[in-house]
């Protein structure tokens, strides 16, 4: 069948997160977020997942890179101008909850925070760039984690509801596309980032994790409700981390592990938000995970049922391979989750297996199951970039990675899948969520900071900058 190409209204762009680019963590009334309490360094996740971690910001030997990040708070006009130069049709970003409600439990929002995002959205619209906004992206006010215990506490439903309704009311005339929580299902493996629960305070307790999921589902449904009340044309979506899942071989036990893992990780959170009810397999899943009875009310179930999402946003970086039969197989790293090494795939420097066909499979699996528009809102290649003597940055490895994944999207479109758009992750270099480093770079734009955030901070166009500009100019026909 002839490839039909990308539709004319395809949303080309890039993606970032407030806590990874803005810096200015105590400016204009903002208070710390959970991201501001996360130390940098390759052992970041190991530290945060241990009993030694607490939410107090002290003089950690690895420092706190999110405090400064790339200083986008002061340089957003310069950065958005570069996005416009590439021809972005959209820009996926997030609002820092702790700029709007610094503690999270206030009744009145911080006007300076709202004013900042008015300026950001106006700057995007000046260049005809559609903002695509994540309401909560691995960032919540630190007070809500320290004093309330994170999302296992039902009080957070009301706090998020107030926050979401505030930003929706303020920006509904400027922002059409919204997402409720970033990679909500990542908490299945690492609850600290999206649920604000540390080790010893719920992170290791699957009952708390599942209760936190429920509370987030309800809170997100309130955001959908408000958005649709304000403007039926607003599109409110969910956002999940999707990892196409394979069985290592045809052994029935490995096949069953693949199916079960797919339900638990890839499908559960999306099922609830799309269908407005818990899936048939939930009770057995709770049993297998030793989840005690959850606090779920009939009113909350009604809110879920009546306020389902309009589209599915998801990140895709890698696939994962499941094995429960052969304990001698090598385990590999990944984006939040790992698996056994897939002998047919190559890996990045960080151990993430590269699988473009897995994205085509993911798109087909999601569309077949949900029949909703899909938006690839994160995909990209983290690598160590080197500046040549002439100032150029030859990142052909990034171009090749993204090209192969765009070809996979193109094939999925030809398969009949409804794909709204593509926003490359870290379109400008930013602080890595997993390591807190600058050296793991994703951007088309190089930011001159090292891992200690020393440097000029100057923005430099990489080879991929010009390549992606041509991709957008030709609506994907030239890759």
Plain-language structure description:
By secondary structure, this protein is α/β, with parallel strands linked by helices. The chain is 38% helix and 14% strand. The protein has 15 helices and 16 strands. The longest helix is centred in the middle third of the chain and has 25 residues. It is globular. The protein starts with 10 loop residues before the first strand and ends in a 6-residue tail after the last helix.
Write the layout of secondary structure elements.
Elements: E1 11-15, H1 18-21, H2 44-48, H3 72-86, E2 90-94, H4 97-100, H5 111-126, E3 130-136, H6 142-146, H7 155-171, E4 177-181, H8 191-195, H9 206-230, E5 235-241, E6 245-247, H10 252-275, H11 282-288, H12 298-306, E7 311-315, E8 320-322, E9 331-332, E10 339-340, E11 346-347, E12 353-354, H13 356-370, E13 374-378, H14 396-415, E14 419-425, E15 445-447, E16 459-461, H15 463-473
Parallel strand pairs: 1-2, 1-14, 2-3, 3-4, 4-5, 5-7, 6-8, 7-13, 13-14
Antiparallel strand pairs: 9-10, 11-12, 15-16
Helix pairs in contact: 3-5, 7-9, 9-12, 13-14
Summarize the structure.
The chain has helices at 18-21, 44-48, 72-86, 97-100, 111-126, 142-146, 155-171, 191-195, 206-230, 252-275, 282-288, 298-306, 356-370, 396-415, 463-473; strands at 11-15, 90-94, 130-136, 177-181, 235-241, 245-247, 311-315, 320-322, 331-332, 339-340, 346-347, 353-354, 374-378, 419-425, 445-447, 459-461.
């Amino acid at each position: 069948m002839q490839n039909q190409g990308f539709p004319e209204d395809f949303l080309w762009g890039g993606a970032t997160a407030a806590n990874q680019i803005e810096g200015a963590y105590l400016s204009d009334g903002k208070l710390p977020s959970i991201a501001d309490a996360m130390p940098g360094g390759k052992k970041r996740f190991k530290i945060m997942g241990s009993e030694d971690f607490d939410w107090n910001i002290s003089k950690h030997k690895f420092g706190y890179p999110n405090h400064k990040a790339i200083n986008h708070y002061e340089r957003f006009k310069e950065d958005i101008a570069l996005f416009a130069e590439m021809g972005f049709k959209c820009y996926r970003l997030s609002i820092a909850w702790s700029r709007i409600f610094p503690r999270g439990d206030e009744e009145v929002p911080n006007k300076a925070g709202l004013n900042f995002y008015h300026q950001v959205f106006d700057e995007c619209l000046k260049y005809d760039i559609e903002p695509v906004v994540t309401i909560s992206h691995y960032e919540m006010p630190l007070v809500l984690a320290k004093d309330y215990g994170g999302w296992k506490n039902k009080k957070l439903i009301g706090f998020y509801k107030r926050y979401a309704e505030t930003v929706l009311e303020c920006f509904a005339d400027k922002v059409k596309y919204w997402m409720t929580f970033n990679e909500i299902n990542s908490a299945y493996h690492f609850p600290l980032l999206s649920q604000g629960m540390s080790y010893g305070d719920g992170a290791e307790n699957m009952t708390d994790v599942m209760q936190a999921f429920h509370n987030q589902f309800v809170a997100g449904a309130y955001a959908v409700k408000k958005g649709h009340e304000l403007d039926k044309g607003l599109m409110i979506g969910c956002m999940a981390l999707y990892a196409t899942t394979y069985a290592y071989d045809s052994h029935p036990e490995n096949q069953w592990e693949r199916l079960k893992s797919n339900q638990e990780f890839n499908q559960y959170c999306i099922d609830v938000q799309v269908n407005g009810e818990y899936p048939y397999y939930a009770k057995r899943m709770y049993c297998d995970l030793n989840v005690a009875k959850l606090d779920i009310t009939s009113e909350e179930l009604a809110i879920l049922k009546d306020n389902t999402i309009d589209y599915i946003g998801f990140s895709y970086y890698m696939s994962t391979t499941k094995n429960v039969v052969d304990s001698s197989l090598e385990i590999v790293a990944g984006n939040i989750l790992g698996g056994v090494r897939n002998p047919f795939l190559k890996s990045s420097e960080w151990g993430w297996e590269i699988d473009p066909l897995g994205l085509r499979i993911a798109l087909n699996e999601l569309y077949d199951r949900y029949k909703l528009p899909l938006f690839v809102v994160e995909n990209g290649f983290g690598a160590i970039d080197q500046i040549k003597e002439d100032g150029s940055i030859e990142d052909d490895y990034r171009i090749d990675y993204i090209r192969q994944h765009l070809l996979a999207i193109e094939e999925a479109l030809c398969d009949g899948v409804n794909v709204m758009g593509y926003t490359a992750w870290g379109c400008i270099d930013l602080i890595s969520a997993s390591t807190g480093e600058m050296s793991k770079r994703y951007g088309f734009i190089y930011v001159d900071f090292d891992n200690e955030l020393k440097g000029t901070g100057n923005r430099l166009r990489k080879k991929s900058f010009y390549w992606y500009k041509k991709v957008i100019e030709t609506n994907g026909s030239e890759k």
